[in-house]
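Possible race condition, two jobs.
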Amino acid sequence: MTLHTFRKASVTGTSVRTDAGGDSFPSSPCVSSFRKSAFLTFFRICRKLLRDQAQRQHFRDTKQRDNCTAYIGGAIESALIQDVPLEVLVINDCSKDNLDKFMLRYRDDPRVRYFKNERRLGVAKTRNRGVAMARGEYIAFLDADDLWTKDKLKRQLQLMQEKNAVLCSTARELMNPDGTLTGYVIPVKTEFTFSDIRTQNQINCSSAVLRADVAREFPMHHDDSHEDYLMWLEVLKKYNYGCAINEPLLKYRISTTGKSGHKWKSAKMTYRTYRYMGFGFFRSLLYFICYAFHGVRKYFFWFLR
């Protein structure tokens, strides 16, 4: 078993593929104008909804994009207490904090391997680097500010072997920036297919475990999208089955500075994910509408707090 934990890198990519197939329509100015109008109108509506939701979040996020030392110790310890043999790969994607000094405390622990990128690679390439260096049969991702319960990996591996699944996730409990638990749990379906996640991504990256050979077969890419969601879609398009434990074995720290924390930016990245999957404009728009609905419903009661 291999764990990857790393600083959340900033992502600056802005390219969007526009030649994805799936829908057929003439390239007339009228149709092009309609596509642009429909796209902008829908996203304006979503942006208003997402801004209204964000205004209900009155907490101070102490996590800075380039500062993970306040949290990464807890993430590493939550991995080391797992009741399975493992190695922990910590990859520093050119953070501006003093992570090198912090990691000296683990230099005598053979289970922990620390690497630092020579230049900032971004989330996708950093995770891919870890996957390439991993020596375990399974891969588990863990962001620097999240935590696992003690039995998470053991239970997931048992379930994957029972179900002959290549991918497994869990439910998650939201955690405040200061580490206090909110008691709010986001559930998951115990079994899911490619069709299930096309309109609702129930797989949080820090909850995921997948076979190492599958992770190498479908590396992450396109940092300007949700690179992990894109990976799950590609994996399930081939294998079409995944399993999950509907218990909060992941404690997920709330953040407004990460890629998913900025809801309007996250919405645009979700649409790009569908386009990178090869879905045409109208199909991508339909999937995004469903995704947005599920996303609002998922966090509705949390935003009311």
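Job #2 (started ~2 s after job #1):
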Amino acid sequence: MHILGSGKITITASLERKEYIPGEVIPVEVLIVNDANVPVEPRVTLYQQQLFACNQVHRTLESCLTSEPYSTTEAVPPNSSATALIKVPLATNLVVSLRSPLITVKYFVRVCLDLPHAMDLVVNVPFIVTTRRARAASAAVNNGAVTVVQHPQPQQHHPNHPTSPHHHHQQPQPHPLNRPIETVGIVPPPAPYHSVSCQQQQPPTAPARNNRINNL
């Protein structure tokens, strides 16, 4: 039996890039610095988060997309550090990441360390699910092959109102339901690694007592 004593465990999770296409495999790089006296093993799961908004009512639905967590073949021994590459496949029928006034769809990879006699250490790394066309357009914009030009909207004047420079015509605001859905497909070039790290200090615990059984 291992008794978790004083020590510190640090975990860092990173992705190769920020956007992925359904059906691809996400390589998750996990760095673990184990300064405690128990072996730890990382577990990786995939989550989808949906946010619904209607007036002042908000609801969040979080669902796990993997039946079983992905893990390494060997645990990290005490007082050591190790780097593991865990591959998580994406389903081919995933909905792309999107953001609108009514619904938002997000994805993230959750890396968890199951610590005995302590709270689990959890790291969430977000990413974007996009399409091949959006990725190609994003690459063309980033490489300078395509230039995005924004043209100013022409001002519309009512025929019954004067067009003097001192007259300001207020354009009607579109209804929130008529706003176009913003698909998160074209993204700026991310950093070489998209990483999130955290650490947890383990408090010292008293050693286990030996119970003596006297036979009468």
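Residues 130 and 159 are 45 Å apart (CA to CA).
Logs attached separately.
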